[in-house]
Design goal:
alpha/beta; 40% helix
C-alpha cells in the first residue's frame, strides 16, 4: 500500500468528483493521504477532509505565496489548528521566489514564525522551496531547524543542495517531475539519496507524471513515480513502496495512532 505524503484534495480542480475519487483511492492501493494546507482557507478545508475520511491526515500552514494574509490574530487560529487530532505536520511553509510577490521580508518573517510554531507544537514540517535554496537553508539553520523533522516537498534542487538537507535529517518529497525526460538533475538526486530518506508525493492536482503530464494529477498516479525510483535505484517496485510508506509513517508518526 502506498503512502501519499502531499496532496491538495480541497483544490477546486476536484469539485466535480472529489468524493468519488477519494473513495476510489484505497481500492487502488493508496493507504494514507496527507492533505496539505496552503492558505488559511485550505487549512480549514483540510481539517474537514481529515474528519470525513479515516485514512486522511492533515498539515496546517500557509504557503509562502499566501503569507500576506497572515497576521497575529489568524496566526493564533493556526496555532489552535495544530492541536486537532489528525494534524500531523505544519505545512506547507517556506520560500518561493519564482514570483515577485509577496516580498522576501514577508515570506521570511512568516517562515520563521511557522518554524517556531512547529517547534512549539512538536510537529514535523513540510517545506516548500522554489528558486530560494540559499535563503531556505540560511533561515532553517538560523532557526535550528535540524531540531525538527520534516520533508523538502517537490524537491527541485541539485545533488549538492540535497546533501545539505539530508545532513540536517530531512526527507525529500519526490513526485511526477521525476518521470519527465528533462529531469536529469532530479534523477541524480534520487540516485544519490538513501531510500530511507525519500517520500512519495503528487502535489495533486499539479505535476502529473508521464504519461499523464499536463492532466489533473491524483494519488492514482503514484505507481508511475515509484516505478521510476525503482528503475533509477535498481531495486524492486515493492521495495520502493514499502520503504517510502515506512518513511512517511515514521515522519508523520502514524504508526503510534
Amino acid at each position: 500500500m502506498i503512502f501519499e505524503s502531499h496532496a491538495h484534495y480541497d483544490d477546486d480542480a476536484f469539485d466535480q468528483d472529489r468524493e468519488e475519487l477519494i473513495r476510489s483511492l484505497q481500492e487502488n492501493e493508496i493507504e494514507y493521504v496527507v492533505n496539505v494546507g496552503a492558505s488559511l482557507a485550505s487549512t480549514k478545508s483540510t481539517l474537514e477532509l481529515t474528519k470525513k475520511y479515516p485514512f486522511f491526515y492533515g498539515a496546517v500552514g500557509v504557503h509562502p505565496s499566501e503569507t500576506e494574509e497572515l497576521n497575529e490574530e489568524n496566526f493564533k487560529w493556526l496555532k489552535q489548528c495544530c492541536k486537532e487530532d489528525k494534524v500531523v505536520a505544519v505545512g506547507e511553509i517556506g520560500l518561493d521566489y519564482y514570483w515577485p510577490e509577496p516580498g522576501k521580508e514577508i515570506q521570511i518573517k512568516w517562515f520563521q514564525r511557522q518554524l517556531a510554531l512547529a517547534k512549539e507544537e512538536k510537529l514535523p514540517i513540510i517545506i516548500h522551496s522554489r528558486d530560494a535554496a540559499k535563503d531556505t537553508l540560511d533561515v532553517m539553520k538560523a532557526e535550528k531547524a535540524e531540531e525538527l523533522e520534516g520533508v523538502i516537498h517537490c524537491f527541485s534542487y541539485s545533488k549538492e543542495t540535497a546533501r545539505e538537507f539530508l545532513n540536517m535529517g530531512y526527507y525529500l518529497g519526490i513526485g511526477g517531475v521525476l518521470t519527465f525526460k528533462n529531469a536529469k538533475k532530479l534523477k541524480e538526486v534520487v540516485e544519490y539519496a538513501p531510500i530511507d530518506r525519500i517520500l512519495l508525493e503528487t502535489d495533486a492536482p499539479y505535476l502529473a507524471p508521464e504519461p499523464n503530464r499536463g492532466k489533473r494529477n491524483s494519488s492514482l498516479n503514484l505507481p508511475y513515480v515509484a516505478k521510476e525510483i525503482a528503475a533509477i535505484k535498481n531495486i524492486s517496485y515493492d521495495d520502493v513502496v514499502r520503504a517510502t510508506r515506512d518513511n512517511a509513517r515514521k515522519l508523520f508518526r502514524i504508526e503510534s495512532r
